[in-house]
């Protein structure tokens, strides 16, 4: 068995316009990032995109800097960003328009729900252009501004940006830092922050110094409120989140799903091995969370430290199929067994849950994990899958590694069979069931 560690209202419009679009309550949302370079805009964009996709809202990020790199293959220096560099201005405008065209295609033609437009957008004129673009296409526009005045925060962001930026792959650290600082100065002269008076009609959140304080204005709908709630919970402090499945249970040995039995002998050995591993890590202020089921609680008890029980971390509810083997489910509910194989994520057990339901149930856990520092979560197979689905998006700045504790356990994973038809034979339905007692 193993442990996984993860580090790291209506649409806005103007009634006097004659060319406005009729917009239903589910019209697309355009999120527009605002801020100087090295203020964490791309980090926020990626995390927000990951979160919205995880909760089932189709979302895509459009990074204008990447459009610029695709068009201009070789980056020379900060001079490209000087306000009086006409060629640079022309190219940057061209890239922004290309990104907006792709936004339009995604939201209007590809059934996207949210687009994140990741660029500096530091002038009021540029933001007005984007807002009009949103109006003309029937999108709700929400601005996210990241403001940093703390020199330590800015310095840390610069290190992260320059180390990861393709613009500086052939530069020394000192050269990259000097050039990037000059690039920031190019934007400072024309930067116009979102203003409580001048921009009072816009929907936005202003984030100061990576969450020290917030200013929220005119949140217009459910999606915008969820965006605000999420952004007010994330932080950038390095930490480790350990996701661990409970030790082998008595029902695991028998090939039965769900239930609430205690650990088997090997499960108890795993709990001891987990305790030894955690003690060796010497993790500062580690919090331990479990579900309210016996097998996770018994796994945590071996640690000999305080732990919190979360009902929302309980295993997926298999409804009428609780404590059945796969063979018994096929025998008693062959149609249900086939339907689950056809769409495992959306299939809901009779009187039970689907993975889609489970994701919604686990959202408070994700929010709290984003707020916490070092945490060990002892949970269940389906729960861990959903949590890993959130953290495995490596583009969002999360490093994931698996840690093996070398304790044998029964295999509870069943691969999707080739034949998922409702008229399949019993043998075809059970071909991928793992061995059990």
UniProtKB/TrEMBL annotation:
The keyword Heme does not apply. One of its GO terms (biological process) is fructose 2,6-bisphosphate metabolic process. Keywords: ATP-binding, Hydrolase, Kinase, Multifunctional enzyme, Nucleotide-binding, Phosphoprotein, Transferase. The keyword NADP does not apply. Gene3D superfamilies: P-loop containing nucleotide triphosphate hydrolases, Phosphoglycerate mutase-like. Substrate binds at residues 245-252, 295. This is 6-phosphofructo-2-kinase domain-containing protein.
């Amino acid at each position: 068995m193993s442990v996984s560690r993860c580090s790291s209202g209506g649409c806005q419009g103007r009634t006097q316009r004659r060319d406005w679009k009729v917009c239903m309550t589910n019209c697309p949302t355009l999120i527009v990032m605002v801020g100087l370079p090295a203020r964490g805009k791309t980090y926020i964009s990626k995390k927000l995109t990951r979160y919205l996709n995880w909760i089932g809202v189709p979302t895509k990020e459009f990074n204008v800097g990447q459009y610029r790199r695709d068009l201009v293959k070789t980056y020379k220096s900060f001079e490209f960003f000087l306000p009086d560099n006409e060629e640079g201005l022309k190219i940057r405008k061209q890239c922004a328009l290309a990104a907006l065209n792709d936004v339009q295609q995604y939201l209007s033609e590809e059934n996207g729900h949210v687009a994140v437009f990741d660029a500096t957008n530091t002038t009021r004129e540029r933001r007005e252009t984007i807002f009009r673009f949103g109006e003309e296409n029937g999108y709700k526009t929400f601005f996210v501004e990241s403001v940093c005045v703390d020199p330590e925060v800015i310095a840390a962001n610069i290190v992260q940006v320059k180390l990861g930026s393709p613009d500086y792959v052939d530069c020394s650290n000192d050269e990259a830092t000097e050039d990037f600082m000059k690039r920031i100065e190019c934007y400072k002269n024309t930067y116009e922050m979102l203003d409580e008076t001048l921009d009072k009609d816009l929907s936005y959140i202003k984030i100061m110094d990576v969450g020290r304080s917030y200013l929220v204005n005119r949140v217009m709908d459910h999606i915008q409120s969820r965006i605000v709630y999420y952004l007010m919970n994330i932080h950038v402090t390095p930490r480790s989140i350990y996701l661990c499945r409970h030790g082998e249970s008595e029902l695991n040995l028998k090939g039965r799903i769900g239930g609430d039995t205690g650990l088997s002998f090997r499960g108890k050995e795993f709990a001891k091995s987990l305790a030894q591993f955690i003690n060796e890590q010497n993790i500062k202020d580690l919090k331990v969370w479990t579900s309210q089921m016996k097998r996770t609680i018994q796994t945590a008890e071996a640690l000999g430290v305080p732990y919190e029980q979360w009902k929302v971390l309980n295993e997926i509810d298999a409804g009428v199929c609780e404590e059945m083997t796969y063979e018994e489910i096929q025998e008693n509910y062959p149609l249900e067994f086939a339907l689950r194989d056809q769409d495992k994520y959306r299939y809901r057990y009779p009187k039970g849950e689907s993975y889609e339901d489970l994701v919604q149930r686990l959202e408070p856990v994700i929010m709290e994990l984003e707020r916490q520092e070092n945490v060990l979560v002892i949970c269940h197979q389906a729960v861990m899958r959903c949590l890993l689905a959130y953290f495995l998006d490596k583009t969002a700045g999360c490093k994931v590694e698996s840690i093996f504790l070398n304790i044998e356990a029964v295999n509870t994973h069943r691969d999707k069979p080739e034949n998922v038809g409702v008229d399949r034979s019993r043998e075809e339905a059970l071909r991928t069931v793992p061995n059990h007692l």
